[in-house]
Amino acid sequence: MLKSNINKSMNVKIDDKRITLAHGAGGRQTAALIHDVFAAHFRNPEFTADDAAILPLGGTKAAFTTDGFIVSPWQFPGGNIGKLAICGTVNDLACMGARPRYLACAFQIEEGFRLADLETIASYMEKTAAEAGVRIVAGDTKVAGRGQVDHIFITTTGIGEVLPGAHPAGARAQAGDAVIVTGDIGRHGCTILLARNDFDIDADVTSDCAPLWHTVESLFNSLDADDKGDIHVIRDATRGGVGTVLYEIAEESHVGIRLHEADIPVAPAVKGVCGMLGLNPLYLACEGRLVIFAPQSIAPQLVEVLRQGKYSQEAAIIGTVTAENAGKVIVDTEIGTQTMLPAPGGELLPRIC
């Protein structure tokens, strides 16, 4: 499964000579790379733009996903690359309504990396997998020469069991849906930015990195069997943040999205850093936040359920889906004006996941 954050209909051409960091940022260039190179060669009936492929397996359905992690620095406030690798893959399965069952992990380790640091990473992976209820059952290890890898890279593959009646997908958003986020946004991207010490900014920001299967499970458990399909879309806002996810869904579902800026939860420290650096928190990565699309009739119920959870106590409705302005995200600003959220593009924070 190859994940794109903007649908192919954006018709963006990739650099025909060299891959740039922007091609891995999750915006226009990523979408173009996937559409023009990978999808052109790999397309088949199971090829998906969602977070995981849904595959028939006996009498049930399985979700299958894989993800690479190259975060720099590998350790940051709130976690490290090991925790991130488990969370990222578990969350991709959860976004498809699938209970994570098994993971496989491949490690690319730079010669000279401290064994004690590797053990720390493995310990975080063990604890996070236990919390998520998933087992690590296979893996691979490669050691690269000095300078060939930035300390350590991890690739994680996961398989999960899709809950009966659950079928969220990026193409299922409907006009009239509410747009829900499960907590304050942009903290992971802000944390990584500060951890690099490039700007000499002192701010107390911790990554939101968390495994979210139990968050998703609580939502489906709150609905009757016939209503589980009313959860139309679930996405984790990783590369490119919430803004990129919204553009992705607007394109895939051929709808417009209208946000209410005053309702978007942003931690004061993150808001302060963004103000100093001219960044938009909507485009900073999250690693423990979901974006959910569901009918407005059940949205307050879902938010109430979310606010009882460990990682979603600040859940909020931040907007609505419209039939107008298909493929665009419109923002009602805090000062009473209306503007279009710029489409995502370029490279903001390399190696945030």
Structure keywords:
353 residues; alpha+beta; seven-stranded mixed beta sheet; five-stranded mixed beta sheet; 25% strand; globular
Write the layout of secondary structure elements.
Elements: H1 28-42, E1 53-57, E2 60-69, E3 75-76, E4 79-80, H2 81-94, E5 98-110, H3 115-132, E6 135-144, E7 152-162, E8 177-181, H4 187-195, H5 213-221, E9 233-236, H6 241-253, E10 256-260, H7 268-277, E11 290-295, H8 299-306, E12 316-322, E13 329-332, E14 338-340
Parallel strand pairs: 5-6, 10-13
Antiparallel strand pairs: 1-2, 2-7, 3-4, 5-7, 8-11, 8-12, 9-11, 10-12, 13-14
Helix pairs in contact: 2-3
Describe it for me?
- This protein is an alpha+beta fold.
- It contains eight helices and 14 strands.
- It has helices at 28-42, 81-94, 115-132, 187-195, 213-221, 241-253, 268-277, 299-306, and strands at 53-57, 60-69, 75-76, 79-80, 98-110, 135-144, 152-162, 177-181, 233-236, 256-260, 290-295, 316-322, 329-332, 338-340.
- It has a seven-stranded mixed beta sheet with strand order 9-11-8-12-10-13-14, with helices on both faces.
- Helix 2 runs parallel beside helix 3.
- The longest helix is centred in the middle third of the chain and has 18 residues, at 115-132.
- The chain is globular and about 55 Å long.
